[in-house]
C-alpha cells in the first residue's frame, strides 16, 4: 500500500456530540466546506471518554478493549497489548516518524498510548494547550498528531449539553481548531495533511442542573466527524462509527489494516470518504454496538445503560 498523506492531524473535541451542526463555528465550516462531514457518527458504548477514545485509537470496540476512565487514569497502556494503538502501529511502520499526543485529559496519552515509543506529548487546559500544539506543529511538522480538547465536555457537565453556555464554549473552541489548522498552514504542510475533527460522545440536557453522558440517547451517541484533505470527497457521510478513525489513519499512512474480526479489529473506512475505488465495501456492524441501524434516521431513544 502506498502512503497517501505525509501528515494526519486529528483534533478531538470531547463531549461535542453532533452539536457542531447547530453551533456558531465559522472556522469549522470553512475548513470543511469542501470536505466530508457527518453529525451522526456513532459513539462507542457506553458513551464515556475512555471507551470512546480507546476505540478510536485502537480500532476495536469498547467491549473488546475494556478500557474505562479509571483504568486510563491508573494504568499505563501495555506495550505488548494484542491491540496496539495507532501510535505503535505507525511507529512500527515508520521508525523515524514524528508522533504527538497532546491531550487536555492526559489519561488518554497515559492510558491508551504506549510509553517509550517516542511520542511527543504535553497536557494543559485546552486554551493553554493550543499555543503549545501550534509551536509543535511549526517546529516538528508531525507525521501523526492527536489532540484532545476537553472544555466543551466540561461546559456540558456544568450547564447541560446543547445549552447556550455549551454552545458558547464550542464557539470558543472553534478558534482553537482554527489555530491548529493555521499552524499547519504556516508550517507549509496543510496541502499534504489529512485534517480531522471528531467528537467522542455528546450528552444530555436535563431540566435540572448539568448534563451527563454514558447512555445511548441520540444526543449522547451521535457525534461529529469531519475530514479535509486532497483525496477527501466533498460529501455527507451516511454511515460511520467513531472507531473507524483508526482505519482512516492507517490507510492515510499506507499501513495495511488488520483483518476484520468481531472480537478484535472492527475499524473500517466509511463509504464515500475518499476518492479511491479500491476501498473495501463498508460492513454494517451495528449489532456489535447495540444500535441499529447506524444512520441518522434512528428514532429517539432515552434508554440508559
Ligand atoms: Zn468524553
Keywords:
305 residues, alpha/beta, Alkaline Phosphatase, subunit A, eight-stranded mixed β-sheet, 11 helices, 33% helix, disordered C terminus, binds zinc ion
In short:
The chain has helices at residues 26-31, 49-58, 62-65, 69-74, 86-93, 107-112, 126-140, 151-159, 164-186, 218-221, 244-252; strands spanning 7-13, 36-42, 99-103, 119-122, 144-149, 193-199, 222-228, 235-236.
Write the layout of secondary structure elements.
Blueprint: E1 7-13, H1 26-31, E2 36-42, H2 49-58, H3 62-65, H4 69-74, H5 86-93, E3 99-103, H6 107-112, E4 119-122, H7 126-140, E5 144-149, H8 151-159, H9 164-186, E6 193-199, H10 218-221, E7 222-228, E8 235-236, H11 244-252
Parallel strand pairs: 1-5, 1-6, 2-8, 3-4, 3-5
Antiparallel strand pairs: 2-7, 6-7
Helix pairs in contact: 7-9, 8-9
Bound molecules: zinc ion.
Can you give a write-up of this model?
With 305 residues, this protein is α/β, with parallel strands linked by helices. The N and C termini lie far apart (41 Å). The chain has helices at residues 26-31, 49-58, 62-65, 69-74, 86-93, 107-112, 126-140, 151-159, 164-186, 218-221, 244-252, and strands spanning 7-13, 36-42, 99-103, 119-122, 144-149, 193-199, 222-228, 235-236. The chain has one domain (7-288): Alkaline Phosphatase, subunit A. The structure holds zinc ion. The site of zinc ion (ZN) has 6 residues, from loops.
